[in-house]
Write a structure and sequence with these properties.
Strand content: 25-35%
Order of helices and strands: HEHHEEE
Radius of gyration: 12 Å
CATH topology: Arc Repressor Mutant, subunit A
Mean pLDDT: 89
Low-confidence stretches: none
Structural class: alpha+beta
Length: 76
């Protein structure tokens, strides 16, 4: 049930940051990660990691796609 709610939220938002998901669903990063892994494996949710600067500060984004694709993580 929570997986469907998260999938629907990402679909409605189009693209959403991991921090936004954590706040919206009141989850820890350790709680969200396994659920997002399941959704990534289904092929409709895609993950993008933006690394910024020498400190490698990372921002994680998820987006929804109507087309089922091979699970992929993009690092920028």
């Amino acid at each position: 049930m929570i997986l469907e709610t998260i999938r629907q939220y990402v679909q409605d938002q189009g693209r959403v940051s991991e921090s936004c998901l954590l706040k919206h669903f009141h989850l820890s990063a350790q709680g969200l990660a396994p659920m997002m892994d399941v959704l990534l494996q289904r092929g409709k949710i895609h993950k993008t990691i933006h690394l910024q600067g020498q400190l490698s500060i990372k921002k994680v984004f998820y987006r929804y796609s109507d087309k089922k694709q091979i699970p992929i993580v993009t690092v920028l």
